[in-house]
Amino acid sequence: MLYLQGAEYGQTLRRLTLWVHNVLLPVYGREVTSTAPWCSRWWEHHEAVAQLHALWLAWGELTGPDGGMTGPGAWHRDFLGPVMTGLRDPQGPFAGCKPGGHRAKEVPPVDAKDPFGPRPGGA
């Protein structure tokens, strides 16, 4: 998902958003608290987009007709629980976000984007 661009990213994000808003949150959303935050603008958190996209893809594979009898159980155990726990952790990507209040996160600093790449001057 994070490697998609332009119209392809927009179309995929729209399909993901429809699934999150019409399937995931109505069934598994739970109440927002300080110990289980959620951001109403979750699509502005790249980590959340990446994790929710992976969750959605796994849901499509494991709960569809080819998922087998244990596919839905495996999705709940192996994907839903860990992803939602991580996203809603008080130190997770929604830390500082409150209902109706999005707070962008600062990216950790790095000294060089490519510290082992070619050096100026050909060294």
- Approximate shape: globular
Low-confidence stretches: none
**Average pLDDT for all residues:** 92
Instruction: State the oligomer.
Output: single chain
Structural class: mainly alpha
* Number of H- or I-type helical stretches: 3
Number of strands: 0
How helical, in percent, are the residues? 40-55%
How far apart lie the N and C ends?
Answer: 36 Å
**H/E series:** HHH
The percentage of residues in β strands lies in: under 5%
For the CA atoms, what is the radius of gyration? 18 Å
Largest sheet, strands/sense/barrel: none
Pfam family, one: DUF4913
InterPro entries: DUF4913 (IPR032584)
Biased composition (Basic and acidic residues): 103-116
Organism: Streptomyces mangrovisoli
Topology:
Layout: H1 6-28, H2 46-62, H3 71-87
Structure report:
With 123 residues, this protein is mainly alpha-helical. It has a domain of 78 residues. It has three helices and no strands. The mean pLDDT is 92. This is DUF4913 domain-containing protein. It comes from Streptomyces mangrovisoli.
Question: How would you briefly describe this protein structure?
Answer:
Pfam families: DUF4913 (PF16259). InterPro entries: DUF4913. 46% of the residues lie in helices and 0% in strands.
